[in-house]
Design a protein that fits this description.
The complex is a heterodimer of chains A (211) and B (115).
Chain A lengths: L2 H12 L1 H4 L5 H17 L3 H29 L2 E2 L2 H24 L7 H20 L5 H15 L2 H4 L4 H50 L1
Helix pairs in contact in A: 1-9, 3-4, 3-9, 5-6, 6-7, 6-9, 7-9
Chain B lengths: L3 H6 L3 H4 L1 H11 L3 E3 H8 L3 H13 L3 E8 L2 E8 L1 H21 L2 E2 L2 E4 L4
Antiparallel strand pairs in B: 1-3, 2-3, 4-5
The chains are: A mainly alpha (211), B alpha+beta (115).
């Protein structure tokens, strides 16, 4: 075991709740998708069906993921402030979006979808900084969203551009959540290995001493 | 100035042992963690983890709490104030040791002196 392993233990423990991608990020992404669908497809039957599917999926996944993580990886309690900051920022963004939707289409100019994409990009960038410049896929997601925002098709996409933007961001959140989940599972498996070796060598040494 | 051997010998043995250091490192990064998490992150068996936690509790570095969740016992561990100080002090000592090790001369394990 080397200092890097201890650093990994520290990182996983500190960011454990954020890395439980299936419990928070993916369900939140599904909710964003549902908002995107309703904006994008209007009040059609397909839209209602997709929204219901997203909400149901989000609710069920959150419930199942919570018990899955508790049963497989156990539980970590963080200081109140540490894990809530990025999520509070995201909720604030969602609240602003909801207000905009309620208020109507006054702000749906060509600029606004790009502004929203920049806000989502900033959220992912904050998450990357929050994690001590690690988990670079979050950084690439931030850049990807920003890149999409700069593309001309954002302004010429048919239907509701705002819905399209939220749809894209929801998809990015789902991708981010799945990558976080994969990282957590892989790291937890890898971290256990060096200590298994130490335990095994200690047991062997003990047996030799007994002889 | 102490010799490298004295510096190594002065390290807290209770903290320095790799498995216990892994447990303490994890606990220093959170408020508290349950038994299963510590078991998964260290890869220890239940018996070994339990034994290490008992030693740490006896040394006053860790506090163990048991509670019932869904009719099952959940064991939670947290660092005590002494534990936090011990871990911080250990990493400071290790850093100092690492720095002074760069000045050690081959064949003569006395710290290099300037001038």
């Amino acid at each position: 075991m080397n200092p890097k392993d201890f650093d990994r233990i520290r990182f996983i423990t500190r960011h454990f709740k954020e890395l439980e991608g299936l419990e928070r990020t993916v369900p939140t992404g599904l909710l964003s998708l549902s908002v995107g669908f309703s904006g994008f497809f209007g009040e059609s039957f397909l839209s209602i069906l997709l929204v219901i599917a997203c909400w149901l999926g989000s609710f069920l996944l959150r419930r199942r993921a919570r018990s899955y993580y508790r049963a497989i990886f156990g539980e970590v309690e963080q200081p109140q402030t540490s894990s809530s900051i990025p999520w509070s920022a995201y909720l604030l963004v969602l609240m602003i979006l909801a207000l905009v939707f309620v208020e109507g289409g006054g702000l749906r100019s060509d600029v606004f979808p790009r502004l929203l994409l920049s806000m989502y990009s900033a959220f992912f960038m904050c998450l990357w900084i929050w994690r001590g410049y690690r988990r670079t896929q979050v950084y690439w997601l931030a850049l990807g969203i920003l890149f999409l925002g700069a593309q001309p098709f954002v302004s010429i996409v048919p239907g509701d551009r705002l819905g399209f933007v939220i749809f894209l961001s929801g998809a990015a959140m789902i991708l981010g959540g799945l990558l976080d989940h994969r990282f957590l599972v892989r790291e937890m498996d890898q971290l256990a290995a060096p200590l298994h070796e130490i335990e095994a060598s200690a047991a062997t040494a003990g047996m030799e001493t007994q002889r | 100035m102490s010799t490298p051997f004295e510096q190594i010998a002065s390290l807290d043995r209770m903290v320095h042992e790799p498995t216990r250091l892994a447990i303490l490192t994890a606990l220093s990064a959170c408020e508290r963690a349950d038994f299963l998490f510590l078991q998964r992150i260290t890869g220890l068996t239940k018996g070994n983890l339990s034994s290490h936690l008992s030693k740490l509790e006896e040394a006053g570095l860790v506090e163990i709490e048991k509670r019932f969740v869904d009719k099952k016992t959940q064991t939670l561990a947290r660092l005590t104030g002494t534990g936090k100080e011990a871990v911080e002090s250990y990493w400071k000592d290790m850093e100092a040791l690492r720095k002074s090790a760069s000045g050690w001369l081959p064949g003569n394990l006395r710290p290099a002196t300037s001038g």
